[in-house]
Amino acid sequence: MRLFVSLEPPPEALQPVADAVTELGEVAGVRWSPPSRWHVTLAFLGEVDDDAVPALVPPLRSAAAAAAPVRLRLAGAGCFGTSVLWAGVAGDVERLAALAGAVAAAARAAGVRLEERAYRPHVTLARAAGRGGAGALGPLADQLSGLRGPTWTAAEARLVRSHRSDGRYEVLQRLPLAHPSP
Known about the structure:
This protein is α+β, with helices and mostly antiparallel strands. 30% of the residues lie in helices and 34% in strands. It has helices spanning 11-24, 53-65, 93-109, 133-143; strands at residues 2-7, 30-32, 40-47, 70-80, 84-91, 122-128, 152-154, 156-162, 169-176. The longest helix is centred in the middle third of the chain and has 17 residues, at 93-109. The chain is globular and about 45 Å long.
């Protein structure tokens, strides 16, 4: 099964972004992701055998439990190359990056092979799809660069299964961030 670990912003944190995206409307060659799928990925685990999930949950739960809740907000926008348009994440990004590192280390300790790459917190808003999409993302990022959402506190991470057949996300485990804030 295809898995990732993420934080889910509450609806009030997503609303200003959803409003801005709605104002942009349909854009040729751009496939908007619905707000119900917006999340901040901590670690993309990729394909994991069903049998491996029970051994994966305890280390993920421990990594989350060792972390304090994280105060974040969505701010700004940008692109990954010419294929992905994202909203940025601001706030306690150092603590967020530490949490992402702990989650990745826990997954590796459980036998999951992860790509080595720098952590760049974001929420994927759209992908280029077809002619013109790649050229449209940069101007869309410019139009969304002033995004500033309200601050929210992430108090739990989630182990999520992504169903390729219908694009649905299924929360397999909720992983509370239990360490008290300093």
